[in-house]
Amino acid sequence: MLLNVRNVEKSYPTADGPQPVLRGVSFGLEAGRTLALTGESGSGKSTLLHLIAGLDAADAGTIEITGKDVSQMDEAGRAALRRDAVGLIFQQFNLIPSLSVGDNLSFHARLAGRDPGDVAALAGRLGLAEHMSRYPEQLSGGQQQRVAIGRTLLARPKLILADEPTGNLDEATGDTMMGLMRDLARESGAGLLMVTHSERLAAMLDARLHLHLGQVA
Ligand SMILES: Nc1ncnc2c1ncn2[C@@H]1O[C@H](COP(=O)(O)OP(=O)(O)OP(=O)(O)O)[C@@H](O)[C@H]1O
Asked: Which residues cross the membrane (predicted)?
């Protein structure tokens, strides 16, 4: 199992005491499969993604990625996991302003010690071929989002975690990008876990995990 989440609990401290957000969440994701994470606003989707990415720690339960328990790792271990096995596509693109689009695309792959491969071919599929020598500030929000998607895919992570990755794109471009992400994840044998509010996009993936009040519904 690529990702194995068991009985994960998480509360946030509030003035009224700990506020439970995840109340015993369990699910698995096999390599090469795609899973949509849905649920109403505040149901804990982003929190769950952050815990899986090792950006925050669960209060209870286990999260195993390729058999390694993220919650048992120290910060250095989690950083290594994020670099080597996990690809994050979040709403903040975190592109590097001083690097061109082409260099932004290949940077993470090189950082992870991987040959980025055919950057130009992927840029073409992402509709970025004409923008390769531009800088992030010279791109629209949707174009920046496509660079962020491409950059993650080129590093060929085993597990791709995406939080509304097509949220800034118009419907047609969003569908195309979603299809591309799904196909590239399948081609490389990666697992894809994607948060979305869109029923249409959720239906494009293999399966769905619906959160309701911090539990799998
Ligand atoms: N750092 C934090 N401190 C305190 N409470 C938080 C924190 N982060 C999230 N929460 C609360 O936890 C709950 C779940 O938030 P989360 O962002 O995981 O929901 P979500 O399902 O991703 O929502 P949305 O669809 O609106 O993005 C919310 O009630 C939110 O207010």
From this structure: none
Q: What distance in Å separates the CA atoms of residue 192 and residue 125, rounded to the nearest whole number?
A: 19
**Per-residue pLDDT tens over the stretch 110-144:** 887 888 888 898 899 899 999 999 999 999 888 89
From the CA of 43, give the closest atom in ligand 1: 21
DSSP letter assigned to residue 42: T
Q: Is the ipTM of this complex over 0.90?
A: yes
Residue closest by Cα to atom 29 of ligand 1: 42
Nearest ligand 1 atom, CA 211: 21
CATH among 3.30.420.10, 3.40.190.10, 3.40.50.300, 3.30.450.150 for 3-216: 3.40.50.300
Q: How many CA atoms lie within 13 A of 140 on its CB side?
A: 7
- pLDDT tens per residue, range 136-170: 999 988 889 889 989 998 888 999 999 887 777 78
Q: What is the pTM of this model?
A: 0.91
Cα 84 to averaged position of ligand 1 atoms, centre (Å): 27
List Cα–Cα distances, 170 to 18, 146, 174, in angstroms.
39, 12, 6
